[in-house]
Amino acid sequence: MKQKTWLKCKYGFDVILLIVLALMYEKNALGMSFHEIGGLALIGFFLIHILFNWRWVIGAAKRLFKRDCPVRIKLSFLLSTGLFISFLLILLSGIGMSKVVFRDSGFVFGGKTIHYFCAALALLCVGGHVGLHAKQILTFFKRHGVRIAAFALLCVLLSFGIYGLVSSSVPRYLLMPFSSAEEGMRGQGRPEEKQLTDSATLSDETAEGTASGNGHGTAAGAKPAGSERVGGDHGLAITISPLNVLRVIAQYTGIALLLAVLAALPILIKRKHPA
After folding, report:
1. Domain housing 61
2. What is the pLDDT of residue 165?
3. What pLDDT shows up at residue 115?
4. DSSP reduced 3-state for 72
5. Quick one: CA torsion of 196, 16, 83, 74, rounded to 10 degrees?
6. Which pTM was predicted?
């Protein structure tokens, strides 16, 4: 009984971790303050996740360079290490770019290229990590009799993930360190500060113009139905739409799950057709 409760808490915590991660990819969904404070919380959650799995980390590290170490364990350890490094670089570059929590720190590290590249890389690592644990996740759903509901939810999220992968800037940010993308952004006068999607919500510049122009933050001078206005960054009001927040969560968790499915395919195929 204790083992079942532990697994429920563990998977529940991982779901929260994935949701918070998804909300980081559009900073205007909940405002810059949430983006920065939530980002710090996310790194804290990730460290707790490592503590939950500390025995596995130690065991995998000891077996890593042994011949009998399974490829799956090596890949999982590599992805976990990549995620840790990505979060560390996101933290350091984020402090240098901070507009709220560390805006007067004077610290500079990496800039937008490192921040965006590592954010996209983290999404890849999370997807691969989830995919490598597909067998355990499927067993968990089977034991709790929710396979059909889980499959239906997965299909919905995967459709969002396919759309998000095509329409967002995630692929472009993965190529930023290897291209002249940053030079092109510098040539525009002010560096691009869009979230990781081309169908972005209100940008900083739009927010400033509309807030000062009509006091409502929308072109028509009225907030969208179902949305809520909160105090924004630097005295600006930001419109928060629950539907937009749900879209962001669905889109970026969908991208991670799409990558997870791709990573899990070899495992599932091998499971059904053992050598």
Report:
1. 2-201+241-272
2. 86
3. 93
4. helix
5. -130
6. 0.73
| Residue 84 in domain | yes
How many domains in the chain? 1
- Domain-embedded: residue 219: no
257 within some domain: yes
Report the C-alpha gap between 111 and 82 in whole angstroms: 19
Residue type, 155: C
Q: Within the chain, which residues score under 50 in pLDDT? A: 1, 181-182, 187-222, 235
pLDDT of residue 272: 56
Residue 230 φ then ψ, to 5° = -130, 165
Contact residues for 154 (Cβ-Cβ < 8 A; gap 6+) = 257
Query: Residue 27's pLDDT is what?
Result: 87
Can you list the pairs that 173-178 forms with residues at least 24 positions away whose Cβ atoms lie under 8 Å? 173/116, 173/117, 173/119, 173/120, 174/117, 174/120, 174/121, 174/124, 176/113, 176/116, 176/117, 177/113, 177/114, 177/117
Q: Cα 205 to the chain's mean position, in Å?
A: 24
Type of residue numbered 208:
E
Q: Is 218 a member of any domain?
A: no
- 237: which strand partners? 231
